[in-house]
Write a structure and sequence with these properties.
Low-confidence stretches: none
Catalytic activity: (6R)-5,10-methylene-5,6,7,8-tetrahydrofolate + NADP(+) = (6R)-5,10-methenyltetrahydrofolate + NADPH; (6R)-5,10-methenyltetrahydrofolate + H2O = (6R)-10-formyltetrahydrofolate + H(+)
Radius of gyration: 19 Å
Oligomer: single chain
Organism: Mucilaginibacter arboris
Helix content: 25-40%
CATH architecture of the largest domain: 3-Layer(aba) Sandwich
Strand content: 15-25%
Number of strands: 11
GO cellular component, one term: cytosol
InterPro entries: Aminoacid_DH-like_N_sf, NAD(P)-bd_dom_sf, THF_DH/CycHdrlase, THF_DH/CycHdrlase_cat_dom, THF_DH/CycHdrlase_CS, THF_DH/CycHdrlase_NAD-bd_dom
Strand order of the largest sheet: 1-11-8-7-5-6
Bound molecules: guanine
Shape: globular
CATH topology of the largest domain: Rossmann fold
GO biological process, one term: methionine biosynthetic process
CATH superfamily of the largest domain: NAD(P)-binding Rossmann-like Domain
Structural class: alpha/beta
Distance between the termini: 41 Å
Number of helices: 10
Largest sheet: 6 strands, parallel
Length: about 290
């Protein structure tokens, strides 16, 4: 069993990104600039956004955060997005999800200028991805492809089973794995909460990508020997042992599944760190006008 080490790869790629950011500074006279909008005080969202901002600074990007309380109106938020769209010194805009129930996330996402949509959630970017045109690829699936590429994992001809059909991870991941690219060229099956007998499919997986949001959902009896396992789970539980006050669990029972796997991502230290890389690379590409 070999570890797909998100910590090692993300640190390595951050050095490359920092060098490229320095080039952007000399070329356009300013740093790549990512703006995040955060509504409310969800613990997970706070942590992820803080990490995105911190990593921007680390690689020499400018980052800005606009915070709103839970009771912000949809109109106020849409006005802010419109203002950020028209600011030429901003390369990337992300609105952290989930949003409070009274705000329609699609309305907010769709208003972000697709040329600054470094999350890759806008219909133009998702559509262009389907057509194999240059686009911003959603950060988590993008990060996973970078991790597989870094270790030279060959996926051509494999049966890839994706567990979870979210627009952020499962759906775009299934598209990327079936594309004529590396990694890719897989035969893809998508399982979700309404799939009866998920085990029947996971047992057939050469590569298993799990993004269902349930701690230890995939157990050792559900995978075959030699499987490649990508665990997207970020299940936070309160802990009295860790400094942060919580502990992160994946969707895969790592301890028992790892001995059967050929490659596996740990949680933490796997996909989560690569998501940030996907976001940084999209922001850099935007600043360099590589896509639009
Ligand atoms: N919520 C969970 N993942 C993400 C992400 O990648 N981007 C944004 N904006 N919100 C999220």
């Amino acid at each position: 069993m070999q570890i797909l080490d998100g910590k090692y790869v993300s640190e390595k790629l951050k050095i490359e990104i920092a060098q490229e950011a320095a080039e952007v500074l000399t070329q356009i006279g300013r740093k790549p600039h990512l703006v995040a909008v955060l509504v409310g005080h969800d613990g997970g969202s706070e942590t992820y956004v803080a990490s995105k901002m911190r990593n921007c600074e680390k690689v020499g990007f400018k980052s800005s955060l606009f915070r709103y309380e839970d009771d912000v109106t949809e109109e106020e938020l849409l006005e802010k997005v419109a203002e950020l769209n028209s600011d030429d010194t901003i390369d990337g805009i992300i609105v952290q999800l989930p949003l409070p129930k009274h705000i329609n996330p699609d309305k907010v996402t769709d208003l972000i200028d697709f040329r600054k949509d470094v999350d890759g959630f806008h219909p133009v970017n998702l559509g262009r991805m389907l057509r194999n045109l240059p686009s911003f690829i959603p950060a988590t699936p993008y990060g996973i492809t970078l991790l597989l590429k870094e270790y030279g994992v060959e996926t051509t001809g494999m049966h890839c089973v994706v567990v979870g059909r979210s627009t952020i991870v499962g759906s775009p991941m299934s598209v990327l794995m079936s594309r004529n690219a590396h990694p890719g060229n897989c035969t893809v099956t998508i399982c979700h909460s309404r799939t009866p007998d998920i085990k029947k499919y996971t047992l057939e997986a050469d590569i298993l990508i799990v993004a269902i949001g349930k701690k230890n959902f995939i157990t050792a009896d559900m995978v075959k020997d030699g499987v490649i396992v990508i665990d997207v789970g970020m299940n936070r539980e309160i802990s009295t042992v860790t400094k942060s006050g919580y502990k992160l669990y994946g969707d895969v029972d790592f301890e028992n599944v790892a001995p059967k796997a050929s490659w596996i991502t740990p949680v933490p230290g796997g996909v989560g760190l690569m998501t940030i890389i996907g976001l940084l690379k999209n922001t850099l590409a935007s600043a360099r006008k590589e896509i639009y």
